Amino acid sequence: MPPAIILIIYCVLITLASLFGGRLATLLKMTHLRTQLLMSGVGGLMLGIAMLHLLPHGGEILGSHRDAGFAALVGMVAMFLLIRLFHTHDHELPITPADHVECGDHDHSDHDHDVHRHDHEPESHDLHRHDHGSHSHCAHHHSHHHHGNAYGWAGVFIGMALHTLVDGIALASSVLADSSHTAWLSLSGLGTFLAILVHKPLDAFAITSVMNKQKWSFNAQDIASILFSLACPVGAAVFYLGFDYLTGDPRVLGWGLTVSAGFFIGIALADILPEVAFHDHDRGKLTAMFLFGITTAFAIENLPGHDHSSHAPEQPNPATVEAADDATAMVPLMSPYSPHHSISGEAGSTVMRHADSDNQGRSPLVKATF
Hints:
This protein is mainly α. It folds into two domains: about 5-105 and about 110-310, no CATH class; about 320-370, no CATH class. It has helices spanning about 5-20, 25, 30-60, 65-85, 95-105, 150-180, 190-215, 220-230, 230-245, 250-280, 285-300, 320-330; strands at about 330-335, 340-345, 350-355, 365-370. It has a two-stranded antiparallel ribbon with strand order 1-2. The longest helix has about 30 residues, at about 30-60.
């Protein structure tokens, strides 16, 4: 199947998944635990795809471990800056009584999660409160956002849209790279597609949750969801068309894969680490989901046709090169364009060479056959 067709199918499915995520709050009851379980599984999948697919493939195309590492670092730093500037990747939910039931009874005698709460509000500077009253570990929020005004959702939207554009680049570069060999069922870029597919609903859900909290209408939320759902197809189309029609340089493909790997690593860690650092509840379930995501990525990368070596540039056999050099260097000939420059010819070939200027009775050009 042509890579363009595969990419179109992937983009349509990702768009539908994003639209579904925008309506997730009204379709499903998303409690804190369910959200964290989903985030752990998706984070493991994205981390596995980045380390097992994007980074190795991109490094082999670039032919330089240093360039691959630098490109991945660029992606990670860019993701960090997006989170820092636009406060993206807060998939937390308002706590409901169901969350307290799901989290169960935990021992809170040691500390309160408010110790780790950093609410950057002007009227509150009590960042390290030690309140040992009744509460739940589930009630902890990483509230690093400034959503006090009516347009606070715009920062989340811009940040999510920008990193979703990079998701589109990752998808297109992965499809193009895998299309150079026979992928399983001709599904080039399958792992990258699945990682983006299961993550986009969470991102869309984060945007509409903030808008809902700020009392925006459902129509406004739908418009934001539609615009956000188009970000990945736009990124994929720009990279695909730019690579196919403007450059065709395989190093551009390698840079696209490795920078995207850095982005994926940053996204996965942003989803996973807050839960690991601040929450003690349901550690077994969350760890199992994280490992399930990594196992899924490993299984995808071991499907038939996923051979990374097919992306590596072919290296000539030294013995063959040496033998060819010996064969062509047996007899030095004079170039027909300059009597002072030697050239080499293969055995059995017919060449023209200059005769010496003092050759008498001969043509200036003499045919020599070897």
